[in-house]
Design a protein that fits this description.
112 residues; alpha/beta; 4 strands
Length: 112
């Protein structure tokens, strides 16, 4: 399985859209893309779009948490947008919504 990523936006606000399953087979690649995006010079806000991610396992969740943590170190706000109901359920169970800044599609328009 493979995961694709597409970085869009300009200036200090970007959206990194992931496509594919975010699991043990793809977590390393996705994590590298997430951290590279967070490290971009001049970035103030990164939204991670999960609309096209049908499945996330614990290794995928770990990569999201790592990106948020690295963002905090760099002064970049990192948040998750467009989570699917299954993602939202996992984030709720793990009490990660505040950490991940989870928003729905309506919140994403205001975020970027």
């Amino acid at each position: 399985m493979q995961i694709e990523h597409d970085l869009t936006g300009s200036g200090p606000s970007l959206v990194l859209a992931l496509t594919g399953e975010l699991d043990i087979a793809t977590a390393e690649h996705a994590g590298a893309a997430l951290l590279a995006a967070v490290e971009m010079p001049g970035l103030a806000q990164l939204a991670i779009d999960l609309a096209a991610v049908p499945f996330i396992d614990s290794t995928g969740v770990t990569q999201l948490i790592r990106a948020v943590g690295r963002g905090k170190v760099r002064g970049v706000t990192v948040k998750v947008i467009n989570p699917r109901p299954a993602h939202r359920y996992v984030f709720n169970v793990l009490q990660l919504n505040p950490l991940l800044g989870v928003e729905d599609e309506a919140g994403a328009a205001a975020a970027v």
